[in-house]
Amino acid sequence: MSLSTVLRVLGRKDGEIHSVFRAGSRVYGTASATSDEDFVAVLARRDARQDLAFAPGVNVVVHGLDTFRDAIAEHSVFALECLFLPPEHRLKEGRPPFPFKLDRKKLAASAASRSASDFKKAGARFDDEPEASKKKLFHALRVPLFAVQIAESGVLHDYGAANPYWRDIVADERLDWEEYRKAYGPIREGLCDRLAALASRR
Fold first, then answer.
1. What is the pLDDT of residue 76?
2. 135: Cβ–Cβ under 8 A, 6 or more apart, which residues?
3. How many angstroms separate the CA atoms of 11 and 36, rounded?
4. Which position among 21, 95, 108, 184 has the lowest Cβ density within 10 Å, counted as fewest Cβ atoms?
């Protein structure tokens, strides 16, 4: 999918957009034939609010320059994913590039909080929306795993690192959230503990 498609979804001209990044399953390598296309678009305006835009089969997270810089400064893994993307997933890049200075403590706190939130949401809605909950469970594992990569090496180099978890979760036919909690809760906690240990390094 091209930059022009994203511009049509946003109803904006190229000059109004600073950067556009591909995101989600098509970056991780978990997309199916029916998966939506996901993007992050950063508007050239500093004061633009964070928002969402949708079209059939397309989801765009919209940032202004300030909100995206704030997300990077707070070490949001979702924002940091954009910074380390390979060239084929960078539809447009503004200049200069967004600055990033690694703070392992911030990264650990941000990733652990997001992971805990996704894990809680997965359990809360599992009975009514098991497929959506499985995605939340996957993200609860993916986020700290990605954060560990960044904490260890300063970059995110393997966007498919969490995919074995996804394959196991999708293949699991159990309908009781408690079974998933028992199976994946310790894995999530172990990743967060590993991240906390990295954050304590000097």
1. 98
2. none
3. 19
4. 95
d(CA 145, CA 194): 9
| Full set of structural domains in the chain with CATH | 3-92 (3.30.460.10), 104-199 (no CATH)
pLDDT for res 162? 97
pLDDT at 97: 87
C-beta separation of 91 from 186 below 8 A: no
Contact 107, 150 (CB under 8 A): yes
Q: What's the Cα-to-Cα distance from 202 to each of 105, 139, 150, 198, rounded to whole Å?
A: 11, 28, 15, 9
Q: Is the pTM of this model over 0.90?
A: yes
Residue (of 184, 188, 177) closest to 128 by Cα position: 177
74/13 Cα distance (integer angstroms): 29
CA-nearest of 42, 10, 48, 49 to 23 is: 42
Where are any strands of DSSP class E within 33-152? 37-43, 51-55, 58-63, 90-92
